Amino acid sequence: MSRERGRKKLMLRIPEIRHFLASSASETLSDLFESYDLAADSLERFRTASPTDERRVLEYEGLCREIEAEVVVYCDERYGKQMRS
């Protein structure tokens, strides 16, 4: 369940590779989907907490960006020619 939520969140966050994310089914990508879902959920909790924990917000914003970058690199390595056409 968490993997599919992560996939959908990444599809919204990185629309230029949405079609690759929708059709990909590797273990590596599935792990990244799950990690992204957990990190994005934590980020949202930290953002809405009262008082807001700015240090944690910054930490998890960075973590989400790192996972997004990993997903883009993975897709580029796997589907590079298709992504650039």
Overview features:
single chain, 85 residues, 4 helices, 84% helix, elongated
Shape: elongated
Estimate the mean pLDDT confidence.
Answer: 92
Structural class: mainly alpha
Low-confidence stretches: none
Rg (C-alpha, Å): 14 Å
Summarize the biggest pleated sheet.
none
How many domains make up the 3D coordinates? 1
Instruction: Count up the helices.
Output: 4
Tell me the β content: under 5%
Helix content: over 70%
Assembly category: single chain
Can you count the beta strands? 0
Q: How many angstroms does the end-to-end distance come to?
A: 32 Å
Order of helices and strands: HHHH
What can you see in these coordinates?
The protein has 85 residues and is mainly α. It has one domain. It is built from four helices and no strands. α3 runs antiparallel to α4. The longest helix is centred in the last third of the chain and has 31 residues. The protein is elongated, with a radius of gyration of 14 Å. The termini are far apart. The model has no long low-confidence stretch (mean pLDDT 92).
